[in-house]
Amino acid sequence: MLLFFDRARTYRAIAQATTANIHDVQRAIEASGIRERYEQDPTAFPSALGFLEELRVVLVDAAIGPVPDLTILRDAWCALFWENKVVHKVIRHLKVVEQIPLILLSDTNELHYNHFRTRYQAMHEMFDAVILSFRVGVSKERNAPAMLRLAVREAGKKNILYVDDRQSFVDAATGIGIDAHAYGSDRDLIDWLRARELTIPLTVCD
């Protein structure tokens, strides 16, 4: 929800870098299972470099080429994102105006996190703490309650509001007593926050 994404952007970027057909690129990557492994379990690879090296092997084996260097592959793999400007404004309001501590809890992988941290630095700096599955060795996908308890521990005894775009993670949060919201639209998120006496101005949607 912090960033919009479209995987077709990644496949298109790799296709442009290799002069290959985008459908051939997508077919090779999806058939290998490498994307699903990396996204579902960010700890499946020893490092971001290890993932990129295996991705390069996948493309070479599929005769996708000429295969670019790892730096270009890294940039292409992160090309899928663009900013959710409304959510960025909401986060800034919560941090600057409401002065609410913010914790980022994410199953993102190392590559995508590094991209977020550098490309969207202003948004990243709004967070007081960052809990990432590839760092802590547990994920929302595999054990959402355990991941959520890390956030509870970080927050201390404060009241916690949790927002996620996955209903299963929201259900896990409510299951351990956290007030949670399933993100579906910017306006629904703002209405949910305003119902909790947070004065998010409707003008953030402009």
What this model shows, in words?
Helix 10 (140-155) crosses helix 11 (167-175). The strands form 3 sheets. The protein has a two-stranded antiparallel sheet with strand order 1-2. The chain is 57% helix and 11% strand. It has helices at residues 7-18, 22-32, 34-40, 48-61, 70-77, 85-97, 110-119, 121-124, 133-136, 140-155, 167-175, 186-194; strands at 3-5, 81-83, 103-106, 129-132, 161-164, 179-182. It is globular. The mean pLDDT is 93. It is mainly alpha-helical and 206 residues long. It has 12 helices and 6 strands. Helix 11 links the parallel strand 5 (161-164) and strand 6.
List keywords for this structure.
206 residues; mainly alpha; two-stranded antiparallel ribbon; two-stranded parallel ribbon; 12 helices; 57% helix; 11% strand
Compressed to H and E, one letter per element, the order equals EHHHHHEHEHHEHHEHEH
Average pLDDT works out at 93
Helix content: 55-70%
- Assembly status: single chain
Q: What is the overall silhouette?
A: globular
Structural class: mainly alpha
Measured by DSSP, the beta-strand proportion falls in: 5-15%
Count of β-strands = 6
Straight-line distance between termini: 18 Å
The biggest sheet amounts to:
2 strands, antiparallel
Report the uncertain regions. none
Number of helices: 12
Write out the strand line-up for the largest beta sheet, numbering strands in chain order: 1-2
Topology:
Blueprint: E1 3-5, H1 7-18, H2 22-32, H3 34-40, H4 48-61, H5 70-77, E2 81-83, H6 85-97, E3 103-106, H7 110-119, H8 121-124, E4 129-132, H9 133-136, H10 140-155, E5 161-164, H11 167-175, E6 179-182, H12 186-194
